Amino acid sequence: MAESSFSKAASTAASYYDSNDADRFYAEIWGGEDIHIGLYIAETEPIATASRRTVEALAALIDKQLTGSSNESCTIVDLGSGYGGAARHLCQSPRVNVEAINISAVENTRHRELNRAAGLDRQIQVHNASFEAVPLEDACADVVWSQDAILHSGDRQQVMKEAARLLKPGGVMVMTDPMAADGVPSESLSKILERIHLSDLGSPDRYISWANNVGLQHDVWDERTPMLVRHYSRVRDELQRRHDELKLSISPEYLNTMSAGLEHWVEGGKAGRLCWGLMRFHKPKESIP
Questions:
Q1: Whole-number Å distance between alpha carbons of 256 and 248
Q2: 102 to 11, 13, 272: CA distances (angstroms)
Q3: In a domain, 47, yes or no
Q4: Of 149, 68, 136, 151, which is closest to residue 99 (Cα–Cα)?
Q5: Is residue 285 within 8 Å of 235, Cβ to Cβ?
Q6: Measured between alpha carbons, how far apart are the two ends of the chain, in Å?
Q7: Is residue 45 part of a domain?
C-alpha cells in the first residue's frame, strides 16, 4: 500500500516515524525493539526491560492460543508492529506465525533485518500497510495484537472493524493504547493532541463501545495508568541525561520538542486526564461482525 493511500492521520504518523530523528530516538532511548509503554518494578529500571515485561503481560492474556495443540498453527496479526520486538517474542513458539502491519518503511526495514538475524523471517511477514485497511483475508487470525499504536489512527472505529474482520470466531484481540480517561474532554488534552497531530484520543469506554459495534466482546481491562506516568518520566529523564550524546545523531530541535512533549504526557497522567492498561476482547464463535 502506497503512503498516498493512507488516511491523513496515518500519513502523518508514517512521515514522523520515518524521519531519521525519530528512528534514532526510538531505537536508542524508547526501548530498542519494544517501543511502547513499559511495566516497571523499580523506578529507575531500564526502559527496555520494562517494555519487554509489557509484551510478556499481554502474551499472558493469550496463553491459551499460544499453548494450544502443537499440531495447530496460531496466526497473530500485529497492528502497528514497530521494530517487531513483540512479534519475535511471540514466535519463540514454532507454531506461531505473525503478520506484522506497520506504516513506517524505516521501522519495517529494521524489523525485517532483526527477523533475519533471529532466524524468524519465515515466521514473520512484515507488511507496509495501514491497520485501517489490512491486506489480509477475513477470519485469518487467531489473535489480533496491538501495542500503543491505534491512537495514531484517525478512525479507531475502523481499526476495531478490521480487527473483527480478521479474527476467526473464537479469536481474541489484546491491546494497549495511551488513552484519555473516561469523560475527559479533548480540550483538556490540547497540548498532547497538538504534538501528535490528532483531534482526540480513545478512552476505555469508547474502545469497549467500538468493539461492541463490530461484534467483539470486552472481557479484560487491567488499568495500569501509573505505568504511563512512570514510562514517560523515565524516557524524559533518560533523554535529559544523555542529551549531549544524543545531539550528535539527533537534531537539538527534535530533542527539545520531544522533552516538552513527554512532560505534557506526564502532567496529563498525574492529573488523571489520561489512562493506560491492558485490554482483551473476544469474537464469539457464532458472531458475524
A1: 14
A2: 12, 10, 30
A3: no
A4: 136
A5: no
A6: 24
A7: no
Contacts of 247 by beta carbon, 8 Å cutoff, 6+ apart: 255
pLDDT in tens, 86-124: 999 999 999 999 999 999 999 999 999 999 999 999 999
Parent domain of 212: 3-39+54-282
Entry pTM: 0.93
Joined together, the cell numbers standing for residue 275 give 489512562
Q: Is the distance from CB of 98 to CB of 76 less than 8 angstroms? A: yes
Asked, for residue 46, whether it belongs to a domain, the answer is no
Total domain count, the chain:
1
User: In this predicted model, what pLDDT tens digit does every residue of 242-284 receive, in sequence order?
Assistant: 999 999 999 999 999 999 999 999 999 999 999 999 999 999 9
Specify the CATH number for the domain of residue 83.
3.40.50.150
Question: C-alpha angle with apex 209: 144 to 10, nearest 5 degrees?
Answer: 55
Q: Is residue 48 part of a domain?
A: no
130 touches 149 (CB < 8 A): no
